[in-house]
Every structure is written in structure tokens, then in C-alpha cells.
Amino acid sequence: MIKGCIFDLDGTLLDSMHVWDDFAFSYLISKGIQTNENLDEVFSTLRMEEAVAYLQKHYVQKESLETVHDEVYALLKKRYIHMELKPGVKECIQKLSTMPVTLCVLSANHKEVCETALKKHGLSNKFSYILSCEDIHLSKDDPACFYYACEKMQLKPAECIVIEDALHAVSGAKKAGCYVVAVKEKSQQKDEEKIRSMADAYIEDMQELEEILCRKF
């Protein structure tokens, strides 16, 4: 029986992957730095703290890691105030919050950024836990990341559904023993076939998720 739902934030609840695609370039431009490096590819599976460390090491060595961290998160927080939910998300979360299931967000993003975005849409209080992979310094391709979320909810992985959009996260959740629902996300198009084959279910929108969850409860 399913007792918990673990939601990714970016690309799953929020239509925000474009921010991840260009935040590094925006930050570097603010520093007067240009690059031809494909940072989208470099950062595709990194936690935000790893991305910040990469920027500091390769582009702004004169700045302390703490300074770069603070500047990047200030930039992100401003952007996330304006982030929109993906279609059907608000209705889905509101409905789930009335059901006997624990709701959790597990994101590679900074916890404060997650809370800012969810609060804007009146959803932060619908989740019992808002967790960041930064708390345990692990990426989502590591099943320990999902064990961490399950432990916080005091549930077994087999009692949890994970809703994700990225291949490396789907892989980590499957290794952890969770039931995985993959959400269609245009930025993950190149991996869609692999995601479909790996996930337990693949959905186009959150209305389909409601149908799956109703069968699992």
C-alpha cells in the first residue's frame, strides 16, 4: 500500500527547467564573463551546490565559494518568485493533501528556493517535508538520496511513489525500491525512451498521476 509521495520540484511540479539551463550563463554575464562551454550538459546531473563549486573553480577563482554560493542563490531566488506550476499540479497536490498520504518534495535545488516557489502558489503547507539533496551531499542517481526521504517520512521505499522527470533521478529511485512515475518534460526529450522503459509509469500531465495514485491507495 502506498503511504507517501516524493515529488521532484524542477521539471515535475514547476515549469522551471529553463532556469537551470541558463542560470550559470546569467551569473557569469553578471560578472562580465563569457563562455562557449556547454554548461547545460555539465550541470545536467549535478546538485546545485556542485554546480556552484564548478563555477567558482573554473570561472571565478578570485571569489570565495561562500560568496559565489550566496550570489547564485540570490539570483535563483529572484527568478523562482516568478516560476509557474506545470499544468494540473495545483489541483493534484490539493487533492492529495486531503488523502491519507504523506507528501514530500525532494529537490537538487536549495531548500529556501523550493520553499519560495511553493509558497508563491500556496502549496508549501501541503507538504510534510521539503528536502534538498544538499542536506546529505548526494545526487539523485544515488538511491541513498531516496532512502533519506523515506526515512524522514518514516516509510519504507516500497510504500512510496516517486514522481520525477530526469533519467538519473528515475534510475536512483528505482534502485531504492520505490514505485516511480516519470513525468513528460521537454528538456528530457533526448532521454525519453530510456525514461519510459525504466519507470513504472509514464505520464503526460498531473491528471494522469491522480488516476495512478487512486489505484495505488
TrEMBL record:
GO BP terms, alphabetized: DNA repair
Write down a Pfam family by its short name: HAD_2
**Gene Ontology cellular component?**
cytosol
- InterPro entries assigned to the protein according to its UniProt record, in alphabetical order: HAD-like_hydrolase_sf, HAD-like_sf, HAD-SF_hydro_IA, HAD_2, HAD_sf, PGP-like_dom2
Source domain of life is Bacteria
Question: What CDD domains does the database record attribute to this sequence?
Answer: HAD_BPGM-like (cd07505)
* Name under which the protein is recorded: HAD family phosphatase
Extract the GO molecular function terms from the UniProt entry: phosphoglycolate phosphatase activity
